[in-house]
Amino acid sequence: xxxxxxxxxxxxxxxxxxxxxxxxxxxxxxxxxxxxxxxxxxxxxxxxxxxxxxxxxxxxxxxxxxxxxxxxxxxxxxxxxxxxxxxxxxxxxxxxxxxxxxxxxxxxxxxxxxxxxxxxxxxxxxxxxxxxxxxxxxxxxxxxxxxxxxxxxxxxxxxxxxxxxxxxxxxxxxxxxxxxxxxxxxxxxxxxxxxxxxxxxxxxxxxxxxxxxxxxxxxxxxxxxxxxxxxxxxxxxxxxxxxxxxxxxxxxxxxxxxxxxxxxxxxxxxxxxxxxxxxxxxxxxxxxxxxxxxxxxxxxxxxxxxxxxxxxxxxxxxxxxxxxxxxxxxxxxxxxxxxxxxxxxxxxxxxxxxxxxxxxxxxxxxxxxxxxxxxxxxxxxxxxxxxxxxxxxxxxxxxxxxxxxxxxxxxxxxxxxxxxxxxxxxxx
Length: 428
Hints:
This protein has 16 helices and twelve strands. The protein is an alpha+beta fold.
């Protein structure tokens, strides 16, 4: 369906819908971008109730965007948008195919359930970030071409070969994203099975449930960050209770598109060549992706419980383990199906099945009989300690050994104690 056809269909539904009146006198009065109140005291809406069946997020609509026959205003309330607010609201940055969410106001009760800050408009967001509304919109806009990029793009080599693209935000944008990380992203709901980029969890907590199992199944999500698009981030924030303009602004701040430099009449423009997505390098990307995967984590954890398996996830690495070998193929097939249904793809080249007879590793941690390094890795570290005691101190090598001993101590204090005793005997 073309954009024109979808817009026409939405307009027909809008005009012909039967209005339903509800009492919203107990709600806080919503405000526009300038902080002035918008009337919802006797609001008439096209639809009332939850945003989706079975959800708690309620529909509160901006009466200024309702058809004329459905608007009810009281004295001293604005009936229209200011010019700047209207330009922003109907700009390319705020476009969406789902017209039923574009006029949504915040659901403060939903925000309170999740312990999230109540931001009713862009002015509230700008105040928290310490910028003006104009500066906020400068960084939170999707333009068909940019004179100056807000990100520095470079590559780093992958351990498995190839390169990984990193988009590092520049100083001002990074400062805003770090503030968002503290004020918003760190408070987003995250599954108990997610162990990457979560305070108080680590590779140790992610590997511990898989110790001593007969079989370990490892899956990898292909293109993890690029699969979490701006639309998905915006939809998540709307579902958590934010109004559409605020959700769209926040999603724009935390995503970016791949861009190609194009020279036009001597001027270089940076043109987007892909959708806006969560990028590696932005401080907010890991936390946002964890929140987007909440539903998938719950489904996969339920699948694991059904067959007596354990499940954990560290970023894009998914791990199942159990003792029922007969259920292995069923778990793998259903997990792949759930992942696809949630909009992600399994990287089949990185799918691994590790049985008890061989090395079983989860996020670099050996889990055959206990947490720690493998025998080969401990033997190599012991040799380095011996060489350090024989040849004398080397600052770089000593720092590496100190780091490895601290890592082993986190995973397995007993192994670390044995290695440290050997180092002390050699006088290091």
